């Protein structure tokens, strides 16, 4: 399968170094046609993980980017922030299987990484594997993701309370 991903990247101060490494890696990856770096750009840039995570997720929601890689200390804050943007599904994942399922089961467009959790080479490997994954809208997982989307759109009623 060929890809032409447009990727937005972002980080807070804790994730700056790993974000820059991932951005450099993405810029030389033939599967990526555009890398948009929302910062932070240096130690003088004091924007927080929600500032950057929300902006990146909004870029995905608008269709300005296909996907986002977001880095903070743990990845958790970035994922929480990104998941608040309607239409965006974000995950923290630091192992291949979780990265794979986040796309194939859950149609996540946002991968959040923790610079204080994962080493740079594993992070680069995970991002590389992630670029080869694409959600299958005809898969059995699609109807499950659709329940979340309908709930988000205020069209609840089909999910079952137990
Ligand atoms: O999830 C949040 C991130 O890990 C962030 O980089 C650190 O947040 P804190 O400074 O509030 O601990």
UniProtKB/TrEMBL annotation:
Mention one GO molecular function: intramolecular oxidoreductase activity, interconverting aldoses and ketoses
What's a single GO BP term from this record? cellular response to carbohydrate stimulus
Catalytic function, reaction form? D-erythrulose 4-phosphate = D-erythrose 4-phosphate
EC number(s) given by UniProt: 5.3.1.34
Q: In which pathway does it act?
A: Carbohydrate metabolism; erythritol degradation; Carbohydrate metabolism; D-threitol degradation
Entries under SUPFAM superfamilies matching the protein: Ribose/Galactose isomerase RpiB/AlsB (SSF89623)
User: Is Cell inner membrane a UniProt keyword of this protein?
Assistant: no
The record ties this protein, via InterPro entries, to: Rib-5-P_Isoase_Actino, RpiB_LacA_LacB, RpiB_LacA_LacB_sf, SPI_LacAB/RpiB
Keyword set, alphabetical order: Isomerase
Q: Name one Pfam family in it.
A: LacAB_rpiB
Q: Which NCBIfam families match?
A: PRK05571.1, RPI_actino, rpiB_lacA_lacB
The entry's family comment says:
Belongs to the LacAB/RpiB family.
Name of the molecule in the record: D-erythrulose 4-phosphate isomerase
């Amino acid at each position: 399968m060929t890809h032409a991903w447009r990727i937005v990247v972002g980080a807070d101060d804790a994730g700056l170094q790993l974000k820059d490494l991932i951005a450099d890696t993405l810029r030389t990856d033939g599967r990526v046609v555009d890398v948009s770096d929302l910062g932070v750009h240096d130690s003088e840039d004091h924007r927080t993980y929600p500032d950057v995570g929300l902006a990146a997720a909004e870029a995905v929601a608008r269709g300005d980017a296909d996907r986002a890689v977001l880095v903070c200390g743990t990845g958790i804050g970035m994922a929480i922030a990104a998941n608040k943007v309607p239409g965006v599904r974000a995950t923290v994942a630091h192992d291949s299987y979780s990265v794979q399922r986040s796309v194939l089961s859950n149609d996540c467009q946002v991968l959040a990484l923790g610079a204080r959790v994962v080493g740079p080479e594993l992070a680069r490997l995970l991002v590389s594997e992630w670029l080869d994954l694409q959600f299958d809208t005809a898969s059995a997982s699609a109807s499950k993701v659709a329940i979340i989307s309908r709930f988000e759109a205020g069209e609840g009623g089909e999910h079952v309370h137990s």
